[in-house]
Design brief:
It contains eight helices and no strands. By secondary structure, the protein is mostly helical.
C-alpha cells in the first residue's frame, strides 16, 4: 500500500515538475525550435534539458535523507549486470527489424543529423533516468509495498511527462499517434525502472535509454 502522506508529497512534487516542464516547453523550447537551427538549436535545448531535468534530479537526490530511498547510492556503477547486455542485444535486433519492415532496408535515415548525437545519445538518458529512476522510483519503492506497483506507477508518470512535447509538436500529432507514443514510453519506463531496481544502479538504465534513443533517430527517424 502507498503510505498516504509520503505518497501525496511525492505526487505533488511530480505535479510541480510537470507544470514546470510544460511552461518550459511552451515558452522556451518551442521558441528555440522556431527561431534557431543546427548546433545553436541543439546546444540551447540541451542546456535547458540539463538545467531543468538534471538540475532538479540531482537537487532532489542530494537533499533527500538516505533512509527515504530504496537504493541509497543510485549512481554506483554496476556494469556486470548481465540483463543490461541481453537488453542491449534485444533492442538492437528489434530496431534493425523495425527499420527493415518500414523501409525494406537497414541504414541511416535521411532525417538523421549529427547534432542529434548530443541530445539523443548523451543528454536525454542521463537527465530522465536521474529524475525518474534515481529520485522518483527510488522514493516510490520505499513507500509502496509492491515492487510491481511502484514500477507501474512510475512508468505511467514517465509517459505522461512526455505530453508537453507531444502537444506542442508542429504539425500536430494525431490522438492515436500520441496514445501510441505514450504506451511505448510507459513500457520503456517500466523496463528502465526494472533495470534500476534489479541492478541497484542508474547506469544500466542510462545506457539502454541512450542506445534506444540513438537507434530511433539513426534507423527509424525521429
Amino acid at each position: 500500500m502507498l503510505h498516504q502522506r509520503a505518497g501525496r508529497q511525492l505526487l505533488s512534487q511530480y505535479g510541480y515538475f510537470f507544470v514546470l516542464w510544460l511552461v518550459i516547453q511552451v515558452f522556451i523550447n518551442v521558441p528555440i525550435l522556431n527561431l534557431t537551427s543546427g548546433w545553436t538549436e541543439e546546444l540551447l535545448t540541451d542546456a535547458v534539458k540539463l538545467f531543468i531535468w538534471l538540475g532538479v534530479g540531482l537537487f532532489m537526490i542530494f537533499h533527500t535523507k538516505r533512509d527515504r530511498f530504496a537504493i541509497e547510492r543510485p549512481f554506483q556503477v554496476n556494469l556486470k549486470f548481465k540483463p543490461l547486455y541481453i537488453t542491449l542485444i534485444a533492442i538492437v535486433i528489434y530496431m534493425l527489424a523495425m527499420a527493415f519492415i518500414q523501409r525494406h532496408s537497414v541504414g541511416i535515415v535521411a532525417t538523421f543529423k549529427p547534432t542529434m548525437l548530443l541530445q539523443d545519445f548523451l543528454v536525454v538518458g542521463i537527465c530522465e533516468e536521474t529524475v525518474f529512476r534515481g529520485y522518483l522510483l527510488n522514493r516510490l519503492r520505499k513507500i509502496v509495498d509492491s515492487e510491481q506497483t511502484a514500477l507501474l506507477i512510475q512508468a505511467v508518470l514517465f509517459a505522461l511527462i512526455h505530453l508537453p512535447r507531444y502537444l506542442t509538436t508542429y504539425p500536430p500529432l494525431s490522438f492515436l499517434t500520441i496514445l501510441g507514443q505514450l504506451v511505448t514510453v510507459a513500457i520503456l519506463g517500466y523496463l528502465f525502472g526494472w533495470l534500476f531496481l534489479k541492478s541497484r544502479s542508474l547506469w544500466p538504465g542510462i545506457i539502454v535509454h541512450s542506445v534506444w534513443d540513438l537507434l530511433i533517430v539513426l534507423l527509424i527517424g525521429s
